[in-house]
User: Which sequence fits this backbone?
């Protein structure tokens, strides 16, 4: 096969197709229509071997004769001379823990000698994967070969695809492990395939891989003589259409195009009108009536009453309601009807809406307070066994205590041009020298050591270690912050005004160059109070419209990083009283206020709606908190300057948006926006402006009901093509979710739990803490590796998936590695709350623990083996009158039983409420609570037969022996799904048709979270 024919065919195919492309969101996050979370690394080879992805897996060029040359098609490209010395290596950890793999590159052979390797990746010369573009062993043609234990295991040969010299060729190899296949492509078309591959990538790759471009792992083989350009690694098996698209766009001369049409759906498809699960027995669905105020879209219940045949006691029926993008339907008083749908049926329940005239909206006031981390301690379970809470906590505490603070200060000293202490080593990944987000891990670290200090009263040596770390971190950061805007020598020039920061020395404009030779360190020109791990340029560039990306003209979420730092400083202040920490936060708060207060509203709207670049974490939360700590109103003002007006209020006139119950976040980046909602609630706490509460409450209701996966995560879009985004349309999780690259960003769930806890302090709805329990047990606890504090970024939920854990030694942080430090050092923070007048104690979670309620001189000990047992015991030590409010979970449908001092109490405990026990408690009173578990299903809202299996609060997942590309099918009894499930409730290990099901938080191998369920 002549390669020129392949090339022409591809061009003809795409000529008619090119109109399906549009410009991507600003930045380079969606490259060729593929979300960046799918990308492992990208090497342009236009003068160096840097990784252009955000993962900083920079390559290294070897050999004296490697050079770069100008090329007519691609500009500057890499030239490998084939001299037996020259090649490129990339970091061994690049392919660790991946499930599938796609490798693509542009190559221009300068020799057709047999034995050349475009790349050779693997453990060693006995176990590896390589591409031989001209063939090997006297076999000509394009070859992709997998060697296992020294023997050829699988190969995809294309003898007709003979390479010619001097011609650019786009090549690709895709290892699709669930499909047990390896495909090869040339110029966008498939040319070879190996099938029935019985292997995992873990058999090829470890942490200590040898990853070479241009040479073989084995000695003696021919080195590559070729030009190389745009070498990419993806963690997903790209389709032929995606590879063809990459090829086409490169020929068009750009990489900023994304696809207009919806991405390919490779999930199993089901007939749209086939009834699913209990809907098969459905005979009717009730219509409903709701009221709302003019201007506010009604909150329609997602579940309504249904009737079933054959005596089936089915659950309430999930109704899919339309989701307007504005509030025009409620612009005036009157009545209208909304028609819903029930997945897989023809039922169309109606909601009759009455719109009443506007009135002053009532929103709740703050009613509850939290207990300090030092007031609640985690205990072993009722049988003296370590709990998952203690296990995860100790993994983090024991590793944190060994960390060197100088690693977390390295890039701050680097930014200010200061010498590093002896032995100091920088962090990696997103805190590397040239990474524009560097310093974010330091903020998480500040919070983590503050929480660890507050939580380790059980070990005074540990607590002292964390106290020393806090003081050292603050002292160094304080010293640097005091340098900013001050002359380096007496009488020297300086710029104290944050609004007058000039470009760096010798530069005419601002840039984000953080390389050793390019970074500016003229701290005296940065304005008073500035603190960051990089100079002020990124903040200023964002004001001037910079987008997200890797170029020096682009930025990466400067305010996101700052929020982590300020939050950490305030956490240290609040647990230790360190005044320097507060002074640093105030100084930078003033710097931010000075700059943002001079910007017009339109500029702020543009900034905060710029993908990733405008991600500010919870800066609004931090500034509102600083206002509360200092009683300085300017900090509340600057908090409101971070209002995401477009999402919160629709426009500058506040005419719709979340405040009016309009879903304005569909398709947006989840973790960019959830912290903003947390901040809105924090502003409400201090301003008591009802709009902010409505923003937070409406968002939570929609996120939980229309975007949530069974583990509690809320993001994982296949449409838009970005696993970190909310799906494009609400309540279409199956149609638009389940990204192939994984979903449910762990730090998004961290922030959802934070929002949930804070909302509960205002409104004690049981559904809030029911969700908190779900996300805590089935995502946060499940996000930590078995034998280290390594943790998940995205959690894959497709059939036969495997969790990927990272950062076991706390030396290289992504965003989720950072929030994991926080989550696992505060696991006790929401077990109990108290009313502000200390008249009521809330028991929210059933975790073995001890509460010291100082204001009442009461100690409460909770003794339980929950969730491996369905009961808990509360023992009161001390005496006094107070209400004990105990959560009756929504899943507790088989009863909730209470004994006090051995005597059974007659109580009305309705699932989804709080049960109040009001009495004058005596020292030694014992409350026994029993809540029998049962199995229940949590189906996907728009494809009900795809569901997760729960036992009480615990998500049970199938333990898979091998990769899968279809959902595991199970059949359950319609009247009692537990009849077809065997196992031991005390170990939470069950079997269905011979397949083992275990809690997700105890699952470390291949698994299926969702199942294809039939009821009979």
Assistant:
């Amino acid at each position: 096969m002549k390669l020129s024919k392949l090339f022409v065919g591809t061009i003809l195919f795409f000529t008619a197709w090119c109109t399906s492309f549009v410009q991507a969101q600003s930045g380079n996050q969606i490259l060729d229509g593929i979300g960046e979370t799918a990308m492992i690394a990208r090497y342009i080879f236009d003068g160096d071997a840097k990784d252009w992805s955000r993962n900083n897996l920079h390559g290294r060029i070897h050999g004296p004769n490697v050079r770069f040359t100008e090329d007519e098609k691609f500009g500057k490209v890499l030239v490998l001379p084939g001299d037996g010395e020259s090649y490129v290596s990339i970091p061994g950890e690049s392919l660790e823990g991946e499930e599938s793999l796609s490798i693509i590159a542009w190559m221009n052979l300068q020799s057709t000698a047999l034995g050349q390797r475009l790349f050779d990746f693997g453990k060693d010369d006995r176990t590896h994967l390589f591409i031989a573009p001209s063939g090997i062993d006297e076999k000509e043609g394009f070859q992709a070969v997998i060697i296992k234990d020294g023997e050829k295991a699988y190969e995809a040969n294309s003898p007709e695809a003979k390479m010619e010299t001097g011609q650019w060729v786009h090549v690709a190899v895709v290892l699709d492990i669930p499909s047990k296949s390896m495909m090869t492509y040339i110029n966008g078309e498939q040319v070879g395939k190996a099938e029935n591959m019985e292997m995992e990538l873990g058999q090829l790759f470890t942490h200590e891989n040898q990853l070479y471009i241009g040479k073989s792992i084995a000695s003696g083989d021919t080195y590559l003589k070729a030009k190389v350009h745009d070498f990419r690694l993806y963690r997903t098996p790209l389709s032929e259409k995606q590879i063809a698209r990459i090829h086409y766009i490169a020929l068009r001369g750009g990489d900023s195009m994304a696809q207009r049409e919806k991405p390919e759906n490779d999930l199993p498809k089901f007939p749209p009108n086939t009834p699913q699960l209990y809907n098969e027995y459905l005979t009717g669905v009730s219509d409903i009536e709701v009221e709302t105020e003019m201007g506010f879209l009604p909150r329609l219940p997602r579940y309504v009453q249904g009737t079933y045949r054959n005596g089936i006691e089915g659950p309430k029926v999930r109704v899919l309601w339309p989701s307007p993008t504005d509030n025009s339907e409620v612009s005036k008083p009157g009545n209208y009807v909304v028609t819903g749908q029930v997945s897989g049926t023809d039922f169309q329940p109606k909601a009759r809406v009455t719109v009443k005239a506007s009135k002053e909206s009532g929103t709740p006031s703050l009613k509850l307070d939290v207990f300090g981390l030092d007031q609640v301690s985690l205990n072993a379970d009722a049988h003296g066994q370590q709990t998952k809470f203690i296990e995860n906590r100790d993994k983090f505490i024991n590793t944190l205590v060994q960390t060197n603070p100088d690693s977390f200060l390295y890039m701050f000293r680097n930014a200010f041009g200061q010498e590093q202490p002896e032995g100091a080593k920088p962090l990696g990944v997103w805190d590397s020298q040239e990474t524009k987000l560097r310093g974010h891990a330091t903020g998480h670290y500040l919070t983590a050591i503050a929480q660890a200090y507050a939580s380790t009263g059980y070990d005074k040596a540990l607590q002292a270690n964390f106290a020393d770390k806090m003081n050292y971190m603050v002292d160094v950061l304080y010293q640097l912050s005091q340098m900013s805007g001050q002359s380096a020598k007496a009488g020297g020039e300086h710029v104290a005004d944050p609004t007058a920061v000039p470009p760096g020395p010798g530069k005419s404009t601002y840039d984000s160059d953080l390389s050793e030779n390019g970074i500016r360190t003229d701290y005296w020109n940065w304005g008073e109070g500035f603190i960051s791990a990089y100079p002020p340029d990124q903040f200023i560039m964002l004001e001037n419209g910079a987008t997200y990306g890797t170029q020096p003209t682009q930025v990466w979420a400067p305010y996101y990083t700052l929020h982590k730092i300020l939050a950490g400083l305030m956490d240290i202040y609040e647990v230790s009283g360190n005044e320097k920490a507060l002074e640093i936060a105030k100084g930078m708060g003033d710097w931010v206020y000075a700059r943002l207060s001079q910007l017009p509203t339109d500029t702020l709207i543009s900034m905060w709606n710029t993908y990733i670049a405008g991600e500010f974490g919870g800066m609004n939360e931090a500034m509102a908190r600083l206002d509360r700590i200092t009683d300085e109103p300017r900090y509340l003002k600057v908090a409101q300057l971070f209002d995401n007006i477009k999402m919160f209020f629709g426009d500058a006139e506040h005419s719709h948006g979340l405040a009016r119950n309009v879903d304005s976040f569909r398709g947006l980046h989840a973790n960019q926006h959830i912290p903003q909602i947390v901040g809105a609630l924090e502003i409400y706490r201090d301003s008591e402006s009802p709009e902010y509460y409505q923003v937070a409450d409406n968002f939570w209701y929609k996120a939980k009901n229309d975007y949530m996966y069974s583990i509690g995560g809320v993001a994982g879009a296949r449409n838009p093509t970005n696993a970190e985004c909310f799906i494009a349309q609400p309540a279409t999780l199956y149609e638009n979710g389940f990204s192939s690259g994984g979903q449910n960003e762990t730090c998004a769930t961290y922030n959802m739990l934070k929002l949930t806890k804070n909302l509960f302090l205002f409104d004690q709805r049981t559904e809030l803490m029911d969700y908190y329990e779900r996300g805590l047990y089935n995502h946060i606890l499940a996000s930590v590796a078995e034998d280290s504090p390594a943790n998940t970024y995205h959690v894959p939920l497709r059939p036969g998936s495997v969790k990927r854990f990272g950062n076991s030694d706390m030396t290289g942080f992504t965003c989720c590695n950072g929030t994991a430090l926080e989550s696992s050092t505060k696991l006790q923070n929401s077990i109990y709350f108290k009313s502000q007048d200390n008249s009521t104690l809330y028991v929210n979670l059933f975790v073995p623990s001890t509460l010291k309620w100082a204001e009442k001189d009461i100690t409460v000990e909770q003794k339980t083996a929950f969730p491996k047992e369905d009961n808990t015991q509360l023992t009161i030590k001390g005496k006094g009158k107070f209400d004990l409010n105990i959560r009756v979970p929504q899943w507790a449908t088989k009863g909730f039983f209470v004994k006090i001092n051995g005597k059974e109490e007659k109580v009305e405990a309705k699932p989804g409420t709080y049960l109040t026990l009001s009495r004058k408690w005596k020292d030694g009173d014992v409350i026994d609570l029993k809540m029998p578990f049962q199995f229940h299903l949590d189906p996907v809202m728009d494809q009900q037969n795809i569901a997760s299996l729960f036992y009480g609060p615990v998500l049970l997942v199938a333990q898979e022996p091998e990769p899968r590309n279809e959902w595991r099918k199970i059949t359950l009894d319609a009247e009692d799904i537990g009849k077809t499930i065997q196992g031991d409730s005390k170990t939470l290990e069950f079997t269905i048709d011979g397949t083992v099901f275990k809690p997700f938080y105890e699952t470390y191998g291949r698994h299926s979270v969702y199942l294809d369920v039939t009821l009979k």
